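quick one, 483 residues, struct below
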Amino acid sequence: MDATTPGPLAPDLLEREDVRRALAEHDFAAAFALIKKYGGLSQNRIASACHLTPGKVSTIISGQQQVTSFEVICRISDGLRIPGHLLGLAPRAWETRLVQEDRPPEPGAERPSTDEVPWRPDATVDLAANLTRSDLVMDRRAATRALAGAAITGAALLDPLEGWLQPAAAAARPRRRGQLGAREVEELESTARAFRAWDHKYGGGLRRKAVLGQLSEVAAHLDEHQTPQVEQRLYQVMAQLAGTAATMAWDTGLQRRAQNYYLLALRASHAGDDRVFGVNVLAGMARQMLCRDQPQDALELIRLAQDGARHIAGPKVRAMLHTREAWAYAAMGRTAAFQRATVQAAEALADAKPGEEPYWIAYFDEAELAGTTGGRLLDLARRNPKQHAEPAATEIRQALAQRGSEAGRSHALDRIGLAQCHFLLGDLTGAVEETHRAVDAARATRSSRVRAQLSELYPYTVGNGAARPVREARDRIRDLLST
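---
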């Protein structure tokens, strides 16, 4: 059996409360036992449908082995035709096909696949509707277990992005007539900006569901017939909201879900002819890959961004891309290439003039360049502290002096980085002082990325347990991470 053939479960079985609870909790011992009892399936039939061995199914039912692999969970969903939302997954490909098959045929109402190249705007609308619908009803615990750390890499990540470089395909005629005016679009644009500013300052996913609700509403408006001017602006709003949803998902540990929203943001910016924001989306995807220790994928994404917006990106956007490029080189240990890209970033930023670039790149200034450069020098300092730790500390201090605590998440990351620099330099007094400041800054943000960086600071305090000040700093880190 594969994902294209009908699964064996009866619809009423999936309505049972005990079955739904077992699936939501990823308790496959209970789920398989209930499927055997009420669905009439043998262990061999379950194994065949899910591409598992009968012995594997037996050990799962007996409780000797748990299913933790994202791939296996997907096989269970596809093989038994369990809708994705019951397992904390996005809608599966066969679900989309079933919905399309059940929809009454209408002239010009064919809904294309999101795999098609060149990209079609109406497929982007469908992607937004499906993502938000599944996300808004997703069980948080199940989603975290299934999606955290499941980011795709390599060809599976890069190949679907080829449509970015091609003109959009013609869209099917919308099925309903909409009457959205300029004022309503301006309100949506203002809301998208507010959500983006809030996320940049505080981080975390506290308002993620609000962003998704707004994104769902925009998708509904785009599924209607709007004027060309309104439609273009709506796609641009969709791109902004999807980009914010991506960073919020990433900041709460939902790596694969973040990639889905990044792809949506890229497609929406493409449909809305906002190539420069698409560059920003690809830079965000590259940053995610860098944090997942995939620098080669990050470089490919940066090159794709540069190819797609050559001659139209402003100085700040070009500078930001060069810092992502420098980050990848630092991760590869290519010091000379890192230095070259960093110089290019500084030169591009020097050409920037106030008010000439989109609002969303306003954050990228001298402080951001210093903080980013300091962070990458810190990466190099972990391998060669004598050469890079002091320059890293200098850059990070410059960032802290220029943007202050109001920068929220960035301020906390700077503080953590500076504490690490002091440890690498052997300055325990300075390290302890900066660690306390880092913990204070981390308490002011809900960002899981900040907490992940704080957990990387923790080991620096362990080898110096005899010193009371270091021990006290270590206890403060542990107390914060345990909450």
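The CA atoms of residues 52 and 427 lie 55 Å apart.
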